[in-house]
TrEMBL record:
Descriptive protein name: Prefoldin subunit 2
Function (record text): Binds specifically to cytosolic chaperonin (c-CPN) and transfers target proteins to it. Binds to nascent polypeptide chain and promotes folding in an environment in which there are many competing pathways for nonnative proteins.
One cellular component (GO) term of this entry: prefoldin complex
Lineage: Eukaryota, Metazoa, Ecdysozoa, Arthropoda, Hexapoda
Biased composition (Basic and acidic residues): 121-136
Amino acid sequence: MSGDLKKKSGRGPTAEDIMLGFQQLRGEQRSLASKLSEFEMELNEHRLVIETLKNADPNRKCYRMIGGILVEKQVKDVEPVLRTNKDRLSELIEKVNEQLIKKGTEINEYRERYNIRIQGQDDLKQEGEKEAKPESRGNVLVS
């Protein structure tokens, strides 16, 4: 969308286009963070179930939800599948975490390229600088 506007007008993107692009990047970052959180919760559930089944009799009945259907199986059949799923979830979490880091880098580069400042962050930095200056002038060494 913004690429089409660049070609038509011959100028850089408008402030509105820049903000839309930034908001889109932030939305993608939030989506990745949400997925990461969901996968981590699922991984913790798998760990908890594996830990619980570790002490159970291998021939004992257990129930597993598969696609919305409750299936009766034995512990010895379910435990290997849970371990495999846990390992895959761990790999998936690593990949999503890498994507999240790349997205953060992309957002920072976008902010620097278009000189985007976030109000809350910049205000806090300026206040911190103002407060630090008077303290440095008022120091007195008494011997």
